[in-house]
Amino acid sequence: MSIVDDVSRPSRLAEPDEGISIEELALAARNHGLPLEALRYDVTPVGLHYLLIHYDIPALDPERHVLTIDGRVDRSLRLDLAALRERPRVTRRVTLECAGNGRALLSPRPVSQPWLSEAVGTAEWTGTPLAPLLREAGLGPDAVDVVFTGADHGVERGIEQDYQRGLPVPEALREEVLLAYEMNGAPLLPQHGAPLRLVVPGWYGMAHVKWLTRISVLDREFDGYQNAVAYRVRTDADDPGVPVTRIEPRALVQPPGFPDFMSRIRVLRPGPCTVEGRAWSGHAPVTRVEVTTDGGASWSDATLDPTGPVDRAGATGSAGSAGDPSVTGPDGREPGGSTVDERWAWRRWRYEWTANPGRYTLGARATDASGRVQPVDPPWNRGGFANNLVQRVEVVVPEDQ
Amino acid sequence: MSIVDDVSRPSRLAEPDEGISIEELALAARNHGLPLEALRYDVTPVGLHYLLIHYDIPALDPERHVLTIDGRVDRSLRLDLAALRERPRVTRRVTLECAGNGRALLSPRPVSQPWLSEAVGTAEWTGTPLAPLLREAGLGPDAVDVVFTGADHGVERGIEQDYQRGLPVPEALREEVLLAYEMNGAPLLPQHGAPLRLVVPGWYGMAHVKWLTRISVLDREFDGYQNAVAYRVRTDADDPGVPVTRIEPRALVQPPGFPDFMSRIRVLRPGPCTVEGRAWSGHAPVTRVEVTTDGGASWSDATLDPTGPVDRAGATGSAGSAGDPSVTGPDGREPGGSTVDERWAWRRWRYEWTANPGRYTLGARATDASGRVQPVDPPWNRGGFANNLVQRVEVVVPEDQ
């Protein structure tokens, strides 16, 4: 088909000295990251959460939107938003990260969405659990994968497609998986999947299918593009690889002091400084965060906040103006009394540091309860996926004046 | 001062074959543009409006925020948000554009925030007019410039500063200039200047100072960094140049069809197609939009929407879920009855096209009532400011299948 040759090109790695191309820049201008100072907010204000949109944001009418559940089920279901809103309502605070986070820092650099280390965000997603719906439809005994289809349509490496991604049945049946219609207490925004999206806590963003139109149960592994071709960890182009699934542990430093506009190098006044940040993992709870101020030569333990995020609308006044601080109170309960599940949200950490005049490279690394430790050297693969290299925050502490 | 040498470097132009640097990419990952399909919304949904933040988003407490008005005035004023909210309330629909829009497409390329053509957005800003406040403070007879100071703090080309930008007194006294505390019917988001910002309809974004803390009246031209050094149109580094002020006319095409993920080239089915887009100017109303499908070799007139944006919350269902469609009704009136001023908002245009199989380069150019015509060749200057070159949208129309 001529479209293939005309608009799509094969995946490739950048040459050693090749700067970021205009194509990569065009993706970066659309799909933005979390400004790192926004790590200060327990819940990321609307508009600061990272975005990765493969094609165009579709224009969907929430009044006419219908979700179809079909395939290897006893009975197909068709549900509009009103029907979904009548079902049990749950809110979960979930940290999402793009599977390609860190890609632009790899060498050689896979040419795709050029993330540095900011493709993350935490939101409160409200919707109805998926599992009861699948049980209502009645999963066939031969069900293997559940395929989620979005309304976003485009071409990728020559394949014209609606965005589709499959989940193994046991993952789709996890109680935490939501069909979400609200984010931070308001209807989903167009760019976050309005009017309906999937939320799969613990998994990288590619699993959280937006603009959800259809859920199909298959009696085989889904071999569509995003499962079989795109989101796979491969050593080279011929390696079949393994699918990208859960989020590897990562910690980020909220850069202290203030920045230079262009270099983003930080200036920090000498003296005591609380270095803060967030850490998360999709495999298991974060159990340890270590901090370096010398680019990884030495490490010190940070203090983890004991029970997940605590300061809600109080200390972070600006966050209140972003979402809706009334959705949940400071105790993590919804006004109606139901608890917001925060198990899948990032965890705040702090490290007390005395900044003496000089130059420093700050970073942090996370360990989770599964024993995974964030590596200092980036784990390279051809797509630049699940790359949880340690961030580098350059800080200059001038002489006191 | 050591900070200067350590964190800031002089402005420069990229070498002819130099790709986008990691520093430029870091700015692009923070400061995102409007995804061009979002040109479909009369009012840009929250989170899709372009952002340009020089330093960090500051953390301000709206409850404690105070605006000071001082300098060459008869009496200084100190107003908190409650006091500002008690004053007359006005909503204006205003298109904002970054002065650096288009910079990354220039040759040679000024190294700074690397915009392509998407640094634009339209919001409904609600606040209180500035002029009555200045009159209440009493402008001295020797007043020349009014300086607006934000709470965002950083270093730029070696100069540590709070972001400050001055306006000539006659501009500051224009009835349209607002101190805004709401955007699209909700309190300002942190990244848009919460809790208070300036809105100067018709001017590029650098004038709309965010996180506003102080308004000072000077008896001379303001010679601070953002007026005297940064935002100036210069032919070379030694040229003192002229300040960047109002938005030059520009039209953008909402890309038709659907995209390839990586190249963003569009695929469009053959047949009739309404090519749509928006056009704006900060000098005078847009009076004409011309469309090209052959990269500028020939032009045809588009049809302008007769009276500014018309379809509000109705046709663009998703826009309703983003902002608050109840703020103003479809007739452009607020619930209380006051009219939303749309004179400073972009204008929709349409062009009926029959797409035959082939390759096309679409673009559009605007003319305004002041006689300014958008140039096909980019008007180069050393900072890459006010560069309203014509956009290029690559479209492939495959053979019908």
TrEMBL record, chains A, B:
UniProt-annotated stretches for the region Disordered: 293-340
GO biological process: sulfur compound metabolic process
Gene Ontology MF annotations: heme binding; molybdenum ion binding; molybdopterin cofactor binding; sulfite oxidase activity
CDD domains: SO_family_Moco_dimer
Naturally occurring in which organism (per UniProt): Plantactinospora soyae
PANTHER family, sorted: SULFITE OXIDASE, MITOCHONDRIAL, SULFITE REDUCTASE
Cofactor(s), names only, from the UniProt record: Mo-molybdopterin
Domain Moybdenum cofactor oxidoreductase dimerisation: from-to ranges: 270-396
Keywords: Metal-binding, Molybdenum, Oxidoreductase
Low complexity bias: start-end ranges: 313-323
Protein name in the entry: DMSO/TMAO reductase YedYZ molybdopterin-dependent catalytic subunit
Start and end residues of each Oxidoreductase molybdopterin-binding domain: 54-225
